[in-house]
Write a structure and sequence with these properties.
By secondary structure, the chain is of the alpha+beta class. It has a single domain, classed as 4-Layer Sandwich (Glutamine Phosphoribosylpyrophosphate, subunit 1, domain 1), CATH 3.60.20.10. Helix content is about 20%, strand content about 35%. The protein is globular. Keywords: Glutamine amidotransferase.
Length: about 260
Amino acid sequence: MCRLLGVVSRVPRPLTDTLSDLLDPFTALSHEHADGWGLAARTGREHTVLRGIDPAHASPAYRAALETVAGTALLHLRMASPGLRIEPGNTHPFTAGALSFAHNGFFSPGNALDDLIAPELLAGASGDTDSERFFLRVLTRLRGEDPDPVDALVHTAQDITARAEFASLNCVLLTESALYAYSQEDPESEVSQRRGPEFFRMYYRLGPDDAVVASSGMAPEGHREIGKARESRGARGTWETLPYGRVLEIRHSDLRASVHAVSTG
C-alpha cells in the first residue's frame, strides 16, 4: 500500500522543476507511507537508482535526490505490508539492468509466483516482498514469451489473479524506451472497502513539456485533490483516470502516450 509518481519530460530537468507542483503534496503522503522511499531516473543511457528506509518527509537524502536531472523518473513511497521488513532489499524501485519497477498494493500469498519466476532471478531476489516477485515474473516474461512490456505486465497480472488474493496491482515500469503504468484493483478487498474507491486509482496528465502518472491522495498546487476533481486542469494539462485493466505507455523520445485496452482475463 504505497504511493507512486512517474514523469517523462521532453527535456531533462531537475525533478524539483519538472514536478514542482506535485513534490510537496506527494512528499506529505510519507507521513503515512513512512516505510522508505525510492527513486529511479533515466537520461539517455544513464540510469540512477536511490533509496532510503527513512520517511521521505524527514530524509535529507530524499530531498537531495529530488535535485536529480532526469528525462524520465519514478518515485515511490512505501507503506510496508504487515510482516514485511523495512530494509533496503525490500525498498522500491526494484531494478534489473536498464529496468526499474515499483508497485502500489499487495497480493497474498507473497510466494504465489515463485514457481513461475526464472530460478536465477528468484535466487537473486534482494528481499522478500510480493512486489519484487511481481517484478521478477514480469522480467521472466520479458526475457521469454512476452518481450513487449504491455503483454508482460498484463499477463503477470493474470498470473497473480489466478493464484492469489490481492488489493491492487498498480505499478510503474521504466524501460530504456518508455514509462509504463498498469492499473488494477480488487474493489472487494478489505483495504479497498476500508480506504474507499479512490485509494488505488491511478491518474495521468499529458502536457506540452512533460507527462505524469500518479496514484491518488495528492492535491496539486491550485487544484483539488487528484481523483476528486475531474476539472483539475491547468497549463500542464488535465488529469485523466487510467482505467482498470489498461496500460499507459509514454515514450521517452517524443512523449507519445498510448493507453492500451487489454483484458486481464
